[in-house]
Protein backbone atom coordinates (compact mmCIF):
# COMPACT_ATOMS: atom_id res chain seq x y z
CA UNK A 1 0.00 0.00 0.00
CA UNK A 2 0.99 3.53 -0.71
CA UNK A 3 -0.51 6.35 1.35
CA UNK A 4 -1.21 9.74 -0.24
CA UNK A 5 -1.60 12.97 1.71
CA UNK A 6 -4.77 13.85 -0.24
CA UNK A 7 -8.26 12.39 -0.01
CA UNK A 8 -11.97 12.95 -0.51
CA UNK A 9 -11.58 16.65 0.33
CA UNK A 10 -9.42 16.86 -2.81
CA UNK A 11 -11.83 14.94 -5.07
CA UNK A 12 -10.24 11.49 -4.68
CA UNK A 13 -12.67 8.57 -4.50
CA UNK A 14 -12.54 4.83 -3.89
CA UNK A 15 -11.43 3.03 -7.07
CA UNK A 16 -9.65 6.01 -8.66
CA UNK A 17 -6.72 4.98 -10.85
CA UNK A 18 -3.25 6.14 -9.78
CA UNK A 19 -0.42 6.65 -12.27
CA UNK A 20 3.21 7.66 -11.95
CA UNK A 21 6.00 9.02 -14.10
CA UNK A 22 5.78 8.18 -17.79
CA UNK A 23 2.12 7.17 -17.58
CA UNK A 24 3.00 4.05 -15.60
CA UNK A 25 0.19 2.35 -13.71
CA UNK A 26 0.77 2.46 -9.95
CA UNK A 27 -2.56 1.05 -8.71
CA UNK A 28 -6.05 2.01 -7.51
CA UNK A 29 -7.36 3.81 -4.46
CA UNK A 30 -8.45 1.09 -2.00
CA UNK A 31 -9.22 3.24 1.08
CA UNK A 32 -9.89 6.95 1.26
CA UNK A 33 -10.74 9.58 3.86
CA UNK A 34 -10.91 13.38 3.87
CA UNK A 35 -7.13 13.83 4.07
CA UNK A 36 -5.65 10.53 2.88
CA UNK A 37 -5.91 7.85 0.23
CA UNK A 38 -4.37 4.37 0.35
CA UNK A 39 -3.38 2.90 -3.00
CA UNK A 40 -3.36 -0.84 -3.69
CA UNK A 41 -0.22 -1.24 -5.81
CA UNK A 42 -0.21 -3.40 -8.95
CA UNK A 43 2.60 -5.40 -7.33
CA UNK A 44 0.35 -6.42 -4.43
CA UNK A 45 -0.63 -10.10 -4.47
CA UNK A 46 -4.33 -9.14 -4.32
CA UNK A 47 -4.07 -6.93 -7.43
CA UNK A 48 -5.18 -8.15 -10.87
CA UNK A 49 -5.10 -6.04 -14.04
CA UNK A 50 -5.99 -7.14 -17.58
CA UNK A 51 -2.87 -6.37 -19.58
CA UNK A 52 -2.12 -6.33 -23.29
CA UNK A 53 1.24 -6.98 -24.89
CA UNK A 54 1.53 -4.16 -27.42
CA UNK A 55 3.20 -5.94 -30.35
CA UNK A 56 1.08 -9.10 -30.77
CA UNK A 57 -2.01 -7.63 -29.02
CA UNK A 58 -2.05 -10.61 -26.62
CA UNK A 59 -4.02 -10.19 -23.40
CA UNK A 60 -3.74 -11.81 -20.00
CA UNK A 61 -4.21 -11.28 -16.27
CA UNK A 62 -1.37 -9.35 -14.64
CA UNK A 63 -1.07 -10.38 -11.00
CA UNK A 64 1.21 -8.88 -8.35
CA UNK A 65 3.88 -10.99 -6.68
CA UNK A 66 5.99 -10.66 -3.55
CA UNK A 67 9.21 -8.80 -4.25
CA UNK A 68 7.70 -6.40 -6.78
CA UNK A 69 7.53 -8.72 -9.79
CA UNK A 70 4.43 -9.24 -11.91
CA UNK A 71 3.12 -12.37 -13.60
CA UNK A 72 0.93 -12.20 -16.71
CA UNK A 73 -1.16 -15.36 -16.84
CA UNK A 74 -3.62 -16.97 -19.26
CA UNK A 75 -2.06 -15.60 -22.43
CA UNK A 76 -3.15 -17.49 -25.56
CA UNK A 77 -0.32 -19.92 -26.38
CA UNK A 78 -0.54 -19.09 -30.10
CA UNK A 79 0.75 -15.56 -29.39
CA UNK A 80 4.51 -15.13 -29.69
CA UNK A 81 5.88 -12.87 -26.97
CA UNK A 82 9.41 -11.47 -26.96
CA UNK A 83 11.64 -10.40 -24.08
CA UNK A 84 11.29 -6.63 -23.76
CA UNK A 85 7.74 -6.45 -25.20
CA UNK A 86 5.81 -3.56 -23.65
CA UNK A 87 2.66 -4.39 -21.64
CA UNK A 88 -0.16 -1.85 -21.18
CA UNK A 89 -3.60 -1.87 -19.60
CA UNK A 90 -6.10 -3.44 -22.01
CA UNK A 91 -9.02 -1.20 -21.03
CA UNK A 92 -11.58 -3.74 -22.21
CA UNK A 93 -15.21 -2.59 -22.58
CA UNK A 94 -18.14 -4.94 -23.10
CA UNK A 95 -21.36 -4.10 -24.90
CA UNK A 96 -23.50 -4.55 -21.78
CA UNK A 97 -21.95 -1.55 -19.99
CA UNK A 98 -19.14 -3.35 -18.17
CA UNK A 99 -15.83 -1.57 -18.46
CA UNK A 100 -12.32 -2.31 -17.18
CA UNK A 101 -11.47 -0.60 -13.90
CA UNK A 102 -8.36 0.74 -15.68
CA UNK A 103 -8.33 2.91 -18.82
CA UNK A 104 -6.57 1.57 -21.91
CA UNK A 105 -2.93 2.37 -22.59
CA UNK A 106 -1.35 2.86 -19.17
CA UNK A 107 2.10 1.27 -19.11
CA UNK A 108 2.40 -1.73 -16.79
CA UNK A 109 5.92 -2.89 -17.66
CA UNK A 110 7.90 -5.12 -19.99
CA UNK A 111 8.30 -8.86 -20.54
CA UNK A 112 11.30 -10.36 -18.70
CA UNK A 113 10.67 -14.03 -19.44
CA UNK A 114 8.07 -16.28 -21.06
CA UNK A 115 7.14 -19.80 -19.94
CA UNK A 116 5.54 -21.95 -22.64
CA UNK A 117 4.30 -25.50 -22.31
CA UNK A 118 3.81 -27.05 -25.77
CA UNK A 119 0.82 -29.02 -24.44
CA UNK A 120 -0.96 -26.05 -22.83
CA UNK A 121 -3.43 -23.63 -24.40
CA UNK A 122 -2.06 -20.70 -22.38
CA UNK A 123 1.36 -19.35 -21.50
CA UNK A 124 2.78 -17.18 -18.71
CA UNK A 125 5.03 -14.11 -18.87
CA UNK A 126 7.06 -12.53 -16.09
CA UNK A 127 7.04 -8.74 -16.17
CA UNK A 128 9.24 -5.96 -14.86
CA UNK A 129 7.06 -3.02 -13.74
CA UNK A 130 7.96 0.26 -15.46
CA UNK A 131 8.47 1.95 -12.08
CA UNK A 132 10.03 0.77 -8.85
CA UNK A 133 6.86 1.25 -6.81
CA UNK A 134 8.81 1.27 -3.53
CA UNK A 135 10.47 4.52 -4.64
CA UNK A 136 7.53 6.44 -6.15
CA UNK A 137 7.39 10.02 -4.83
CA UNK A 138 4.87 11.74 -7.13
CA UNK A 139 1.63 10.39 -8.54
CA UNK A 140 -1.43 11.54 -10.45
CA UNK A 141 -4.87 10.36 -9.38
CA UNK A 142 -7.30 10.01 -12.28
CA UNK A 143 -10.66 11.17 -10.94
CA UNK A 144 -12.71 11.22 -14.15
CA UNK A 145 -12.51 7.59 -15.32
CA UNK A 146 -15.59 5.44 -14.68
CA UNK A 147 -14.68 1.77 -14.74
CA UNK A 148 -16.64 -1.30 -13.70
CA UNK A 149 -20.38 -1.56 -14.29
CA UNK A 150 -21.46 1.76 -15.71
CA UNK A 151 -24.67 3.54 -14.83
CA UNK A 152 -26.65 3.83 -18.06
CA UNK A 153 -28.74 6.74 -16.77
CA UNK A 154 -27.89 10.14 -18.30
CA UNK A 155 -25.23 12.06 -16.39
CA UNK A 156 -26.42 15.00 -14.32
CA UNK A 157 -23.48 17.17 -15.33
CA UNK A 158 -21.42 16.16 -18.37
CA UNK A 159 -17.73 17.00 -18.52
CA UNK A 160 -14.51 15.87 -17.00
CA UNK A 161 -13.45 16.33 -13.43
CA UNK A 162 -9.84 17.49 -13.16
CA UNK A 163 -7.35 15.01 -11.75
CA UNK A 164 -5.99 15.56 -8.24
CA UNK A 165 -2.24 15.57 -7.94
CA UNK A 166 0.12 15.83 -5.07
CA UNK A 167 3.42 14.96 -3.54
CA UNK A 168 3.47 12.08 -1.16
CA UNK A 169 4.09 12.82 2.51
CA UNK A 170 7.61 11.84 3.74
CA UNK A 171 6.35 8.57 5.27
CA UNK A 172 4.44 7.60 2.15
CA UNK A 173 4.43 3.84 2.32
CA UNK A 174 2.51 1.61 4.63
CA UNK A 175 3.09 -2.11 5.16
Characteristics:
Thrombin, subunit H, mainly beta, 0% helix, 175 residues, six-stranded antiparallel sheet, single chain, globular, six-stranded antiparallel barrel
Summarize the structure in words:
By secondary structure, this protein is mainly β. The chain has a single domain (about 1-165), classed as Beta Barrel (Thrombin, subunit H), CATH 2.40.10.350. The chain is about 0% helix and about 45% strand. It is built from no helices and 14 strands. It has strands spanning about 1-5, 15-20, 25-35, 35-40, 50-55, 60-65, 70-75, 85-90, 100, 105-115, 120-130, 140, 150, 165. A six-stranded antiparallel beta sheet has the order 1-4-3-2-12-14, with no helix packed on it. A hairpin with a 3-residue loop joins strand 2 (about 15-20) and strand 3. The termini are close together. The model is unreliable at about 150-175 (pLDDT under 50).
Main beta sheet strand tally, sense and closure: 6 strands, antiparallel
Give me the Rg, rounded.
17 Å
Helix content: under 10%
Overall geometry: globular
| CATH architecture descriptor text | Beta Barrel
Spatial gap, N to C terminus: 6 Å
CATH superfamily: Rod shape-determining protein MreC, domain 2
Overall pLDDT: 83
Instruction: Please tally the helical runs, counting DSSP H or I stretches of 4 or more residues.
Output: 0
Within the CATH hierarchy, at the fold level, what is the topology?
Thrombin, subunit H
Percent of residues in β-strands:
35-45%
Please, how many domains? 1
Structural class category:
mainly beta
CATH class: Mainly Beta
Q: Give the spatial strand order of the biggest sheet.
A: 1-4-3-2-12-14
Total strands: the figure is 14
Strand and helix order: EEEEEEEEEEEEEE
Question: Regions with pLDDT < 50 over 5+ consecutive residues?
Answer: 152-175
Amino acid sequence: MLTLGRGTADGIALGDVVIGEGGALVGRVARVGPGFAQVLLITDTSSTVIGEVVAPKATGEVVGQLGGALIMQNIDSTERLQIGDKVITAGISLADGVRSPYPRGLVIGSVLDVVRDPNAVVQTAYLQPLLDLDKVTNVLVVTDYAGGILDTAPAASPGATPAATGELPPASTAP
